[in-house]
Amino acid sequence: MDDPSVDELLMGDPSSSVLSDRLLSDQEALTESRSYTRLMDADLRARLQLRRPTSSRTISNKSTENGFSVWDIRNLEYATEVDDNLMCPICHSPFVSPAALKCQHIFCRQCLSEALSHQQDNKTCPTCRRPTSSNSMVALPKVICRMLEELRVKCPLAFRGCNEIIPRGNVQTHLDRYCGYEEVLCPSEDCDQYLPRRLAGKECLHEPLPCPDCGEEVSLLNLNNHRMGSCKVAEIICTDCSSSVPKSMYEDHITSCMETVLKCTASKYGCDFTAKRSVMQEHIESCALVKLAPTIALQNDRLGEHARALKHLQQKNAVHEAFLDTVKDTLATIASADLATSSLPSDSAAPFDSPLSHLLSLHEALREEVSRVSAAVSDLDAKTDTAFLNSSLRAKEEAAHRDAVLAQLRVQLQWLVSSRLQGIHAARAGAGALGISDTRRNSNDAESSSARPLPSTRRGSDGLGNGGREKL
Amino acid sequence: MALPKRIIKETERLVAEPVPGISAVPHEDNLRYFDVRIHGPASSPYEGGIFKLELFLPEDYPMTPPKIRFLTKIYHPNIDKLGRICLDVLKSNWSPALQIRTILLSIQALLGAPNPDDPLANDVAQHWKENVTAAIETAKEWTHKYATDTAT
User: Is residue B87 part of a domain?
Assistant: First the structure.
């Protein structure tokens, strides 16, 4: 503790002790930061859920790339298995600033408020549904909170390579003070950029310097990446001949470097000769296996082809065998059925040991056949009966319909005739009174003309009716 | 949006310790979408059937309930012909302390205990009230027809 006054000033509050750690680690920025500390103290207390140390300088730190890391306590990865009793039933993670309801069910404070805000008027406990309210949340005893803060977690910067495992409550301290992968301000006073803590020394690594190979301006921080990547001139030392080769030529060099140790080209056919490229040519000319290689390759191909053909045939064979099995099964069932029908109850073990029993069984079989046939015949009979009934029913319906039409016609005719007759009677009465013979004759004519078609119609309709009846 | 830790944990647990008679597998391209299979409970008209369901976890899950629907046709007074399920915990009685496995268990229990007094499919519920034996017979037929391996 280099500066006990600062420590005293900020003691007693975990969030500010976190800050004080940061300040101690960065002596140069101390005086500047101190004024911000008090401002941020309140801010940090409000951000217990999502501790997000804002930069004490004017630079924005929206991303983790530039400035301090933004991390969420809910996304921490736990290094050890956490007891199920310490898991929030809502987020299924260890409690973060837990709160209890009257029914003694415990949740993360944030989970609980969110859950209650999603409920309508009657707030209930998410676990037991007992009535509750948003303001009946109670904080848990300090000892439990401390135990939770002691759970071991992985550093939030594990993705950058930090392997530290630390108590959950110390994550901010770790990031602010120790983590070599956290970005810190450049030690140089003129520079306002960031660099990983493990690379921070005395001097600024951001100042552009000409690359020793190509002369392009690169910061010291990126020099290595530049020489391995975008620099066109940087030389690479060949691992085999230890000569330095320009990067652009390196590809060609490794395929032609005389010092590279190679295996014989026929190594896969059994030649275990290895030598430098300069000697290899000599060996290849004398190696018998190299000469045989094309033939062996050809043979290998053929073998492969045969293996494939064999596999195909085996599959085919398997299919056939399966088919054969099913055929055998069906045959067996048929045979057993035959056995069952032909055997008599008295001698089921030896069905054919006497001609009599054989005859009896034949007789039985025939009887069964007959009964089956008779059943089929009766079935057919019933079928034809119903078919006949169906067709005759239709004919009956037709006849009934025609009868109805006929009756209607009859009624109409009667009505016509009666009206006509009434007309004639009236005319006769009129003629009698006046004594005009002409009128009578005329009316007689009219009567006969109107009466004449009547019998014929009747006959026709009778005929039709008879026809209909005959059909029935 | 990144998948919340809770969903990842639930999925891992569903795969590692599956509930007997229930399987839920997330889609590879959408980890919020699950293919669910529920075996019909024993001594119910759905015994022997395997029912397919789809389950979707909405954006604000677990604050809002998962959306679940039967894909296999089923004759049940609380499940309509679109596969929608009438179950209180899927609607008003949802609680974030519930989870996928408890909800699927509730659905399996609903198959074992149809409730025609709170119907979703009115015609089925009517049938259930008027003639329980015939309704159960139809449910068995449907199970055999739509929810067995032979059903296409």
Answer: yes
pLDDT over threshold 90, residue A251 = no
Q: How many domains does chain B have?
A: 1
- Amino acid letter, A348: S
Residue B152 is assigned to a structural domain of this protein: no
B96 in contact with A, Cβ within 8 Å = yes
Choosing from B36, B74, B79, B86, the catalytic residue is: B86
- Which residues of chain A make contact with B4, given a CB cutoff of 8 A? 91
Q: Is residue B151 part of a domain?
A: no
- Residue B86 falls in the annotated catalytic set: yes
Q: Which of B5, B63, B96 sits opposite A93 (nearest CB)?
A: B5
Q: For residue B12, is it within any domain?
A: yes
Contact between chains at A90 and B5 (C-beta distance less than 8 A): no
Q: Which pair of structure tokens corresponds to residue A237?
A: 């030392």
Pairwise pLDDT comparison (B134 vs A66), residue with the higher score = B134
pLDDT tens digit sequence for A135-150 = 888 888 999 999 999 9
> In this structure, what is the dihedral angle of CA atoms A166, A170, A173, A176, given to the nearest 10 degrees?
60
| Two structure tokens written together for A374 | 């008779």
Cα gap A385→B8, rounded to integer Å: 71
Question: pLDDT digits over A398-436, tens only?
Answer: 999 999 999 999 999 999 999 999 999 988 887 766 655
Nearest residue of chain A to residue B8 (CA atoms) = A92
Contacts of A114 in chain B (CB under 8 A): 63, 96
pTM recorded for the entire structure? 0.50
Q: Give the N- to C-terminal CA distance of chain A in Å, as an integer.
A: 124
Q: Hey, which residues does A78 pair with through a beta bridge?
A: A153
Which among A301, A294, A297, A290 has a CA at the least distance from the CA of A263?
A: A290
pLDDT tens-digit profile of A308-329? 999 999 999 999 999 999 999 9
Q: Could you tell me which chain A residue has the CA closest to the CA of B93?
A: A129
Kindly give the pairing relationship between strand B22-26 and strand B33-39. antiparallel
Per domain, the residue ranges of chain A are 262-330
Q: Which domain holds residue B25?
A: 5-146
Residue of B nearest to A117 (CA): B63
Q: Do A90 and B97 touch (CB under 8 A)?
A: yes
pLDDT at A346 over 70: no
Cis bond leading into A345, ω under 30°? no
Q: Kindly report, residue by residue over A443-470, the tens digit of the pLDDT.
A: 455 444 444 444 444 444 444 444 444 4
Strand partners, A262: A275
Q: Are A353 and A347 in contact (CB under 8 A)?
A: yes
**What is the reported pLDDT for A158?**
87
Which chain B residues touch A92 with a CB distance below 8 Å?
Answer: 5-6, 9-10, 99
Tokens representing A171 are 């994550």
Average pLDDT, chain A: 75
CATH at residue B75? 3.10.110.10
